[in-house]
Structure formats: C-alpha cells, structure tokens
Input
Amino acid sequence: MADEFYLTEQELALFGDVFASFHRIMDLDEMLGVIFTKIKPIINIEGASIALHDPTTKEFCFYRTIEQGGAQNNPIPPVMRFPDDQGIAGWVRESGETALINDIEGDDRVLNINLDSSDFVTRSMICVPLKSRKGFQGVFYALNKTTGDFSEKDRKLVEILSGSIAVSLENAYLYEANLKNTNLYKCNLAHADLSKANMVDTFLHRAVLDYTSLFNTNFCHAALGNVSLRGAKYIETAHFDEHTILPDALPIKDDEGKNIQNEVGHYVYDKYWTPDTDMTRYTDPTHPDFWQPEWAIERQG
Output
C-alpha cells in the first residue's frame, strides 16, 4: 500500500542508538548535538534546532542551531523569544501538526526575524511538535535537506524521534522540580537541568550551580549568597525579584558587628536583584566583571 512505512536496518539502528542515549542526557545543547549527529546520516540535513514553549509568557524561546561542521561547544548566543502564535512554530502549536516545508521563501507562515545569530540560512525544514504527558513543550526543527526535498518518510522519521525528545525533556533531572522553601546549603547541583524549577524562597548559600540549565527557573525570594554559577546557561530566562539575594551580597551589620535582621527574622544584605542587574557576570567567565566565590576559586586549584 502507498501509505505503508518501512524502516531500513540502518534506520532501526539509528532509533535504538538515539533512544538509548536520551535517558543519559541532562543538557539541552548535548541533546541537540546527539540528535543532529544521529539523524544527519539518515535524513541528510544541514542543521537542527529547538524552541521551547513558555506558557507563562505565551512565547517560544529559540536556541542556537546545531549545524554541519559547526563547533557544538561554542558559547551559546542569547535566547531569542517570539510570540507563540507566530511563525512556523506558532502554526505547529496551534494545529498540533508537523510542518514540512521545502521552500521557506514561499511560505507566508515564516516569521521574518533573525532567530539565530550565526550565518546559517534556512532553506527547508521539518518542524514537529514536542508533546508529552505534561502537554506541549515546544518544537523541534530538522533543517535544510541536502539531497533533494524532504519527503513524507522524512516527516515520519522526525515525528518518531519527537516523542523521545519530549520524554527526555520531561524526565530530565530536576526539570520543573518544586524546590520551594528548600534548604540546599552547600548542595552540589553542577550540570543539573533546573529548567522551570520552582526555587522560590530556597536557601542556596554556597551551593554549586555550575553549568546548570536555568531555563525559566524561578529564583524569586531565593538566597543566592556565595553561590557558584560558573557556566550556568539561560540565566537570562530565569526569574528574580527584589528579594533575591545576589551571589556576591554580604550581610549588613550593626555598630556592634551583629547581622541586621528584618521584621521576619531574615538577615538583611547589601545587594538584591534589580531589573538592571547583569546576571551574566556570575555565569560567564569571559565577562569583564566576572565574579565567583573564593571557595569555588580555591576548589578549582
């Protein structure tokens, strides 16, 4: 029959390899790299990318494109946000269907903004929804077929992969965890995926958050004093408020050298988050004003 779908031995091996890899992945960039490396020989594409959905702001957050010949360990450019009812991603979210486009310029659904700071030029794509038991999570893009046009078989292959991508995001370590009012003093969370985690009122003094994923993490009222955030990603999407204690903040003392407390018994600090705070100075080692706790510097030797 014309609609029958068969997988070759190579394609079956691909899915077995990818599925076995996903449960070990704790990082969005690593996941993109694995997907692109595994799928490229089968579907013959130049790049892959992902846009995660933020239901709170009703936006998509677009991440960099992993492309052929590109270094996958380059610093990540700023996250680009766009409304969740626009572009191919918006159409995919609203329809729940996969978009197969072999001529980007001829499709009026394409959003006319530069979503990627690289020189990558998108000519064709398959954009598939990422759905799990928690609902719609975003979209995955397979970009630029290198041998002719994308086919219906390509679409079905990407749709099969999308289920595992969504499950992997859902099951990632601490993804969407509720850690409100938790004492995480000196806790080592390095490399953890804290995406969408609720860290409201969490005590994180001297915690290790190096190389964590902080996509939409809620740090309102959190105590980040003396926290190490070296290499943490997506800090620009995290949420803070005027009660968030900054990593380099110090407690204010009275004339007798005692720590001053507020009306609810909490220590008062000299630095709290404001809308003007540049949080990348705690995460980016190349920042001219990069700050890291002394204990973390000593640990690095």
